[in-house]
């Protein structure tokens, strides 16, 4: 996969060279290019923003440098069926979910536009949509100073789904929000050695070797955690896909902090 990121703060994207992302780049699974938007400005001050039409606080990023940047980046790659998807992180976009990450992971090329201030002039996305898919995505109901952090989130979520990136491809199967049985559930608690630490024991079922019991325990824990942390997700569960045990777990009072069982 190829990923181009356009920003006025290229240094913000340094994490793309470390950990999972860095290894994916070293192995040729991910081709990342970071571009400085100011390279496409034409005035002596390298201006990228101006006051908003209609009044109001803040500044809006100008369309000229953004369109010049997008045009230059797209000229360096393939067009047609391999045209890039333009991703614009913005709090006014549709929610970025695991399902959206999976959809983007199936694309050969992404361009991420890191807006700042009050955002990018809306005409940029409008014009881009005439020649490529445009996705305005929000990583949560809050506002950041710019799109760089959101771009890192999106790139990492997408990259770990690419074939060969994770050492164990099955790692994504039981993720929170993963397709299948976990698509609307949060992942439950996880444990490693030692079997007892600080007076707290790993649940006995995880040491039993009984795979069916372990699977049931993990689903119970996922249901409990989802009910506690994301009751809105419980409301979206399909009753027809819940068995009697699921209903029993969801009817339980909130779990205590006892980790000994």
Description of the structure:
It is elongated and about 70 Å long. The protein has 8 helices and 9 strands. The model has no long low-confidence stretch (mean pLDDT 91). Helix 1 (19-26) links the parallel strand 1 and strand 2 (31-36). By secondary structure, the chain is α/β, with parallel strands linked by helices. The longest helix is centred in the last third of the chain and has 19 residues, at 211-229. It starts with a strand and ends in an 11-residue tail after the last helix. Strands 2-1-6-5-7 form a 5-stranded parallel beta sheet. A two-stranded antiparallel ribbon has the order 3-4.
How do the strands and helices of this protein lay out in sequence?
Blueprint lengths: L1 E6 L11 H8 L4 E6 L12 E2 L9 E2 L1 H13 L9 E11 L2 H8 L3 E5 L8 H7 L4 E6 L9 H12 L36 E2 L2 E2 L9 H19 L1 H5 L8 H7 L11
Parallel strand pairs: 1-2, 1-6, 5-6, 5-7
Antiparallel strand pairs: 3-4, 8-9
Helix pairs in contact: 3-5, 6-8
Count of beta strands:
9
Strand content: 15-25%
Helix content: 25-40%
Averaged pLDDT: 91
Summary tags:
single chain, elongated, 5-stranded parallel sheet, alpha/beta, 261 residues, 9 strands, two-stranded antiparallel sheet
Give the structure's gist in a few sentences:
The chain has eight helices and nine strands. By secondary structure, the chain is of the alpha/beta class. The strands form three sheets. The protein has a five-stranded parallel β-sheet.
């Amino acid at each position: 996969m190829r990923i181009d990121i356009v920003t006025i703060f290229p240094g913000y994207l340094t994490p793309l060279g470390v950990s999972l992302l860095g290894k994916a780049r070293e192995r040729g699974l991910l081709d990342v290019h970071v571009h400085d938007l100011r390279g496409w400005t034409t005035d002596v001050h390298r201006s990228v923003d101006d006051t908003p039409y209609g009044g109001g606080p803040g500044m809006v990023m100008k369309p000229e440098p953004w369109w010049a940047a997008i045009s230059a980046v797209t000229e360096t790659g393939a067009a047609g069926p391999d045209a890039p998807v333009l991703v614009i992180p913005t709090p006014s976009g549709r929610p970025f979910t695991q399902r959206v990450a999976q959809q983007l992971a199936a694309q050969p090329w992404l361009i991420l536009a890191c807006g700042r201030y009050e955002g990018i002039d809306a005409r940029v996305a409008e014009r881009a949509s005439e020649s490529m898919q445009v996705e305005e995505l929000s990583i949560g109901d809050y506002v950041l100073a710019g799109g760089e952090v959101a771009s890192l989130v999106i790139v990492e979520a997408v990259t770990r789904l690419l074939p060969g990136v994770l050492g164990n491809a099955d790692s994504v199967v039981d993720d929170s929000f993963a397709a299948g049985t976990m698509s609307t559930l949060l992942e439950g608690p996880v444990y490693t050695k030692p079997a007892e630490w600080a007076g707290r024991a790993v649940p006995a079922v995880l040491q039993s070797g009984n795979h069916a019991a372990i699977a049931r325990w993990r689903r119970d824990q996922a249901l409990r955690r989802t009910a506690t942390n994301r009751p809105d997700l419980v409301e979206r569960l399909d009753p027809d896909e819940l068995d009697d045990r699921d209903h029993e777990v969801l009817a339980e009072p909130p779990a205590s902090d006892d980790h000994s069982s």
